[in-house]
Write a structure and sequence with these properties.
By secondary structure, the chain is an alpha+beta fold. Helices cover about 35% and strands about 10% of the residues.
Length: about 280
């Protein structure tokens, strides 16, 4: 997953999540929690379409999806955020990243960017401020906002739902030991990209999201995590893991031994070289 001192021109550190926007009910990647349709006019549901936001989408992607769902010019939803009156926690400082909850939302004829974003934030507040989450964050000596930030990293890094708890444990172990997180996903967020490879030059980026150079958590969540990632963040399994790498699909290796991790990274690199040498189909 991550190394303390990059020594190769390219180093596989972590497994990024999928990046797919889904509109009008067609889920192409990830899963979404269903949100019941609102009913008006004496209980009769208005004509609606749906907007599906899968887990792990960044705020910028959500804004684009809302623009498309409402047939608005690109950038309209993003511009609406400062005046949307979103009920964000104080720790968010007005930034909705992390609080645009992944779910299926109704898009009726009266929907606006403000109404859809408010629905997402209100849903996140209900999920994240519920007693189990708040208590879990407290047990882990985190604020709810910090737990959402950890969950966003877990959402981006875990190759599968089954890996989420271990990824969360790696994050917490490194924080407890005063180690930099060294996560690809935070760099990708700073660079507004998605990649499975990080170069040494990338790790020199001057950004508060560069978790190679900056200690602790990034200043905000890096995506909008779902409930599975949140549960992993507040209640990870015990373990001493400090590193991980997805060598191949279905084979994510966690270890506390740096030398073993380097061997795992070398195996990943070898597989990548073989793939790169194969002719495109």
């Amino acid at each position: 997953m991550q190394t303390n001192t990059p020594s190769r021109s390219t180093i596989r550190l972590t497994r990024r999540g999928r990046l797919v926007l889904v509109v009008s009910g067609a889920v192409l990647a990830g899963t979404a929690v269903a949100v019941p349709l609102l009913t008006l006019d004496g209980g009769r549901a208005p004509r609606t379409r749906t907007l599906v936001i899968p887990e792990g989408r960044r705020a910028s992607q959500v804004y684009d999806a809302v623009d498309k769902a409402l047939a608005l010019p690109p950038g309209t939803t993003k511009k609406s955020v400062p005046k949307a009156g979103l009920k964000l926690p104080a720790d968010a400082h007005g930034n909705p990243e992390g609080y645009l909850f992944p779910a299926t939302y109704p898009v009726d004829d009266g929907a606006t960017p403000q109404s859809l974003l408010s629905f997402m934030v209100d849903t996140a507040n209900k999920r994240f401020n519920a007693a189990p989450v708040a208590a879990g964050a407290q047990r882990a000596s985190m604020s709810v906002h910090q737990a959402v930030t950890v969950a966003s990293i877990v959402q981006a890094e875990a190759a599968s739902k089954a890996d989420m708890g271990k990824v969360a444990r790696v994050v917490l172990n490194r924080l407890e030991r005063g180690m930099p997180l060294q996560m690809d996903s935070t760099l990708d967020y700073a660079l507004d990209r998605s990649t499975v490879r990080t170069t040494v030059n990338d790790t020199r980026l001057d950004s508060p999201y560069n978790s190679y150079r900056r200690m602790g958590l990034p200043p905000t969540p890096i995506d909008n995590p779902g409930e599975d990632a949140m549960r992993a963040a507040i209640s990870p399994p015990p373990g001493d893991w400090l590193y991980f790498v997805t060598v191949k699909p279905g084979d994510t290796r966690f270890t506390a031994d740096y030398a073993q991790h380097q061997r795992n990274v070398a195996e990943f690199d070898a597989r990548q070289r073989i793939r790169s040498a194969q002719p495109a189909r």
